[in-house]
Amino acid sequence: MRLVTFSAFGQMQLHGDLPVEGGQYNSHVVALDSCEPMKQILIVVAALLTAQNNSNVARTDAVPSSRQAERVARSFQVRETAFQGRVHDLPLTPSHVHWGYFDARLPPALRIAAGDRVRVETMIARGVQRLKDAGVKDDEIPASLKAVEAAITDKTAGPHPLTGPIFVEGAEPGDALEVEIIAIAFLHPFGVEAINPGGGALPDDFTAPALRLIRWPPGAAQLQFAGASISMAPFFGTIGVAPPAGAARIGSREPGKHGGNLDNKDLVAGSTLLLPVNVPGALLSIGDGHAVQADGEVTGTAVETSLRGTFEIRVRKRAQLKWPRAETRLGYITMGLDPDLDKAAEIATREMVEFLVAEKKLSREDAYVLCSIAGNLHVTQVVDGTKGVHMTIAKSIFR
């Protein structure tokens, strides 16, 4: 059975072939079996309209009209029907993982043509030991995670085991890599939240480390924690390309122009991330699975878990991007990254102005004014050294 869920920003999330027990899914979840395409469209439209009235929809730019819901559903159906590329697998094995860094000198784990899809398996940040410390039994941990943990002895460069890199034929410096996230599934039905003294948004308030093991039934749309029921919105916290040739190795903790540890909760299934290409082939790596995260990621972690994702990877020639950008089915996203939060907000805003000038043919003045009345700034995260701010603007405001 295939699941489709809808996040607060209106993205469609496809959760692989997960087992679903009757009655578990809420108003954000729809089951798509082998029904006819038009029936699938109607189901998706109905779910979007249901999500419109759900109390969890907090952002006004997330609310779709019935016409927009139908347009989103039809575009989804067309995209699935039109796909003509190959599908590759990049399973979680020691030879497919590099721990904690991006480096232009890494040999590719996989070579693909632009337009192909890749099914990628990834491993929880900080590895198996974090799961065990949180109380997960050894026989609950997938063998693939344990094999990677045992084989890679140097874990000092950064906290994230990354699957890749993927060499994309035809990608050259100056291009943009389009990474469309088609589907996301869990490798295990539990995750870990952590408090690390000296870290997070309140580095001096908590003097003792703490871990919280959070479990959910396979196929569930929500997790339960501290008396609250929270809709899951899985995404990959780290998606990035290699730095320029000749540049030093970049640790995985801090995000940058290469992408990396963006921790942007809007990058769920149904979204597309655009990354500036620095070297031939781009050398894309992916990891840092999250079951759910709030903007800010204030403890320093999300609900950290291990994910499998399906990605369609394309090349946008001569895009000349300066910073990562993204697009969802309902909106556009620009990103700013800097140790100074004010400067990160400045970058995100300037990026949206430049996007509106280039793509919507507005004057710079009109684009800036539109950002002030229709663009929404969000604090992506404040915990990775380099802080993140992103601006969203709804597609529905444009004729």
How would you characterize the overall build of this protein?
By secondary structure, this protein is α+β, with helices and mostly antiparallel strands. The chain has three domains: 2-82, no CATH class; 87-326, Sandwich (Jelly Rolls), CATH 2.60.120.580; 331-397, Endonuclease I-creI, CATH 3.10.28.20. The chain is built from six helices and 25 strands. The chain has helices at residues 37-52, 66-82, 128-134, 143-151, 341-360, 364-374; strands spanning 2-6, 12-14, 29-32, 87-90, 97-99, 101-102, 110-113, 117-121, 161-169, 176-186, 190-195, 210-215, 222-225, 228-231, 235-240, 250-251, 259-260, 272-276, 284-290, 304-305, 307-316, 325-327, 331-338, 376-381, 387-394. The strands form six sheets. The protein has a nine-stranded mixed β-sheet with strand order 4-8-21-10-18-22-23-25-24. Helix 1 (37-52) packs antiparallel against helix 2 and helix 5 crosses helix 6 (364-374). The longest helix has 20 residues, at 341-360. The two termini are 36 Å apart. Mean pLDDT is 86; it is low at 1-35 and 45-63.
Notable traits:
Endonuclease I-creI; 399 residues; seven-stranded mixed sheet; nine-stranded mixed sheet; 3 domains; Jelly Rolls; 25 strands; alpha+beta; 6 helices
User: DSSP strand (E) fraction?
Assistant: 25-35%
User: What name goes with the CATH superfamily of the largest domain?
Assistant: Acetamidase/Formamidase-like domains
Name the poorly predicted regions: 1-35, 45-63
The largest sheet, given as strand count, sense and whether it forms a barrel, is: 9 strands, mixed
CATH class of the largest domain: Mainly Beta
Q: Roughly how many Å is the radius of gyration?
A: 20 Å
| Beta strands, count | 25
Topology-level CATH name of the largest domain: Jelly Rolls
Number of domains: 3
How would the global form be characterised? globular
The CATH architecture category of the largest domain equals: Sandwich
Coarse structural class: alpha+beta
Residues in helix, %: 10-25%
Mean pLDDT: 86
Strand order of the main beta sheet, please? Answer: 4-8-21-10-18-22-23-25-24
> What gap, in angstroms, lies between the N and C termini?
36 Å
Number of helices, counting only DSSP H or I runs of 4 residues or more? 6
